[in-house]
Specification:
The chain has a domain of 60 residues. It contains two helices and five strands. The strands form two sheets. A three-stranded mixed beta sheet has the order 1-2-5, with no helix packed on it. The relative contact order is 0.20. By secondary structure, the chain is of the alpha/beta class. β1 and β2 form a beta hairpin. It starts with a helix and ends in an 18-residue tail after the last strand.
Length: 87
């Protein structure tokens, strides 16, 4: 996916870069998550993820108009809810 975004003339790969959203707003995007039972390719141990997010946040500079997009998973998957009888 990174290669497709990197070569796109339309889309921007926001990973490892600061995106200018206009009006003084900037954004970082963190495409990694904490570890889950699914062991997906972009999972990191909590300490490594925290360090990665901190490094990305440092690039935003000093402004109160910052956005961060993250993909932090719950430590335990939610169980599906089953509706009970009404009544």
């Amino acid at each position: 996916m990174d290669d497709i975004l990197r070569t796109s003339a339309v889309a921007v790969n926001p990973e490892n870069t600061v995106i200018d959203l206009g009006d003084g707003f900037t954004m970082i995007s963190v495409g990694y998550s904490n570890q889950t039972p699914w062991d997906s390719p972009r999972e990191l141990p909590e300490d490594e993820l925290a360090a990665y997010i901190a490094r990305q946040a440092e690039t935003l500079g000093k402004t109160d108009r910052q956005q961060a997009i993250t993909h932090i998973a719950r430590s335990r998957p939610r169980q599906p809810r089953v509706a009970g009888p009404r009544g």
